[in-house]
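Q: I'm building a small set of examples for a reading group on sequence design. Run inverse folding on the following structure and report the sequence directly after it, with nothing in between.
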């Protein structure tokens, strides 16, 4: 098992077994670990969809629980930041792998 896989598997989890993202820094570090692992990225996107569904269910109740809603909104923000960082890293990796010349190098034709 690779070192990165061990780090991903040992990441702190919440009660449902999902990665515990407590800050923007956590989201960025977790994204850096998982951006090459499609299964973890897929799970993260499913977590984001579930989070949005939970927010929608709470908002539809009258009166809604503002404390729970704000906690879910914060967690949703961290999930979104993590997914955006994963996408940024994947695009950067794609660009680096498909780069044919160095910046500033003149292309002669």
């Amino acid at each position: 098992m690779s070192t990165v896989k061990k780090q991903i598997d040992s990441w702190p989890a919440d009660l449902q077994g999902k990665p515990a993202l407590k800050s923007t820094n956590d989201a960025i570090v977790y994204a850096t670990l998982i951006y090459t692992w499609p299964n973890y990225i897929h799970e993260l996107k499913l977590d984001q969809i579930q989070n949005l569904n939970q927010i929608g269910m709470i908002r539809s109740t009258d009166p809604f629980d503002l404390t729970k809603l704000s906690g879910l909104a914060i967690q949703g923000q961290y999930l979104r930041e993590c997914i955006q960082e994963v996408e940024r890293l994947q695009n950067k990796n794609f660009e680096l792998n498909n780069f044919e010349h160095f910046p500033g190098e003149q292309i002669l034709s």
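The mean pLDDT is 87.
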